[in-house]
Design goal:
Elements lengths: L1 E10 L1 H6 L6 E9 L5 E12 L4 E11 L2 E10 L8 H4 L8 E3 L4 E5 L18 E15 L4 E25 L4 E26 L4 E25 L5 E27 L6 E26 L5 E29 L4 E22 L9 E2 L5 E19 L3 E18 L7 E19 L2 E12 L3 H4 L3 E2 L5 E4 L7 E14 L4 E13 L2 E8 L2 E8 L5 E14 L4 E20 L4 E21 L3 E16 L9 E13 L4 E12 L9 E14 L5 E8 L7 E7 L2 E7 L5 E13 L10
Parallel strand pairs: 22-26, 25-28
Antiparallel strand pairs: 1-2, 2-7, 3-4, 3-37, 4-5, 5-8, 6-7, 8-9, 9-10, 9-36, 10-11, 11-12, 12-13, 13-14, 14-15, 15-16, 15-17, 17-18, 18-19, 19-20, 20-23, 21-22, 23-24, 24-27, 25-26, 27-28, 28-29, 29-30, 30-31, 31-32, 32-33, 33-34, 34-37, 35-36
Length: 741
Amino acid sequence: MVDKVQLYDKKSDQAAFTGIDDGVKNKTINIKLKEDKKNGYFGKIDADGGTDKYYQEQILFNRFKGKQKFSVYGTLGNTGKVGLGWDDNSKYGGSGGLEFGDGGEIYFNGGGGDDLDSFSGRFDGEGIPLARSAGAHYDTKWNGDKESINGNYKIGSLNVDGTKNTIAQNNFDGTFNTNSSDQTFHNHMFRQKLDLTYQVKIDTSQNLKLMVDGTSKDAITNTKYDYVSNYANGGLQNTSKRNVDNDVKSKIFNASAFYTKKFKKVGRTFSLNVSESLNQSESKGQLYARTKSYDTTATLTQDTIIDQRKVSNIKSNVLNTNLTYTEPLTKKLSAVVNYGINLSNNSSDRRSYNDPGGTGSYTTLDTTVSNFYKLNQVANQFGLNLNYKGKKATFNFGSRVSVVNFKQIDEIRNTPDRTRNFVNWFPQATFQYRFSQQESVRLSYNGNTTQPTIDQIQPVLVNNDPVNRTIGNPNLRPSYTNRLNFSYNSYKVLSGQSIWLYGSYSNTYNPIVSNVTTVNGRNTYVYTNLNSNQTVNMYASAYFDRKIPKVDVNAGLGINGSGNTYYNFVKYNDGPNALNKTQSYTYSLDFRLSKYKQKKYDMWGSVGPTYTVNSSSLQTNINNNGRGLQANGGFNIYLPLHFSINSDATYQYNAATQSFPQDFRKTILNVTIGKTFTKDESFKIYFAGNDLLNQNTGYSRTGNANQISQERYTTIRRFFMLSLVWDFNHVGGGAAPAAKK
């Protein structure tokens, strides 16, 4: 079927139209079909059954005829696969899969998905899932390819049952406490999504693209918690048992129109982009919690019961407009001028009702944990950028400025409306130099202002967890972030050598952080601005790969580092309000080997140490830095009579630390034996063993604010499965290409 294959970075619609790089790129494969292969169908049927009632089923069908394409799929299973896998998604004609060009090209855009159709097609691993998903796609062109339409419909449900245990240490000024939480949950989500794109080429210089999508989602969660906290000396401090039930119905609607116009002068363009987003979430829930507190002598000092019905209605309506005009100043220099208006209306109505008579009526409004708040913003944005494009170098720089009117309305307490005005700056600069087609370097900077969200600003006490309560702060101010990115890549075809460097660094001024007050082991979190210090995030990586000719082996070395420096305020009982500095950084080294022989075998492996830094300025005497080791590898062997054996394994080790005195180790081993039938190998039988060593224990260790924590959770473990797979296709029926001499 395939005539040509091209790999490139696809630009955004705006950048593709103006020719000015805006930094947005998607890795794209363009597959050009042969002229006589544009009529046919292909698909896949996959039926899997396993031990312990595990199963996984899938059907995929694609039909194409000239300019028309139609695709459908369906999946069902409880093995952790929540949609089409990465490979099958690339064959599906929906959004996130294949797009079709004017000349029969197929574009596959790599990237993410949504709830039931993720990039990997795998469940994230926490709990035991049951997933159902289906979808349909249709697109066509007409009127001499001047008009086109692209539509997708997806439907799916996901049930997840599981347990989780969290052990944490909270650091305070001069002391700390420890806590353990056991959680049992049952979650259900049902979702439908429809999207439609219409595009028309008005004439040779004008184009209009209309997009609309709508999503309906219903999520039901039932969770039980059993919580215990202890003083630093091990004495009992708090116990809490609570049940939280929620039924959340969400509706999302997005619409946009993108109009472009090119003038006779090359490089002179005009475009208008208008978009609107509507988001509504209605929630009905029930909270029952009983919390007991003890003093240092183990004497009960407080026993509280919360029995409330909770109702919330959260709405968001955002309208964006943007006018962009480009003007060439010279052959290499051009200017980009834009103006836009942003209207944002948000409301959050959260109400809690008590049942004082114990009759189940829940009619008494609890005003201490109820609030109806509105946050409206009007922003006028102006921008000017200059773009220089030379033979090898590209440089653009400029800034946008946004004048924001910020209005806060408290509907329940009838406090006076608050109106504030801000001026936000968004400077940006990008430099790229291409030494050759296989070697380039890129450096970019951008700064942006971030407004507080309505959840951060709404002055309501959220008591869903009586031990960890939060309150919004209506006095929050915007934060400002500087972000710097660097990348370098080089590839030498003859030697097979590649070098890739990437780094990012950001610091945030006036960040919004937590201010936690702890009394008798119960925490109250208030959002606040940090005036004197900056939060920092960084990531850096370097990879080097090269082929070793004598042994025909590819060898590689990778170095990674990532982490953040975070600040928050901590007040313990009657002590001072202390500033806490938390540093959480992870460094890793990765050595890789791989070898491949066509139709015989391929094998790969990597191993490397890790080192994690977790420190708190409030507890400098506690060392929670930890070392670790990561390793993975696998092989595929292709045997006579169309048999094959493949296996993959991963190993994880985390050493004990002062707060977590037990180390963690696990090895996950998977093996598959398969055989293909028929001349085109379209029918396959596989026998697979998942997690043969039965060690797949969910585990994570993290640090956040003044807390470090360790989690263990249920996940899918050992099972064996038999799979029958049929890949079918029929291609042809179109006009044959002209014969060549």
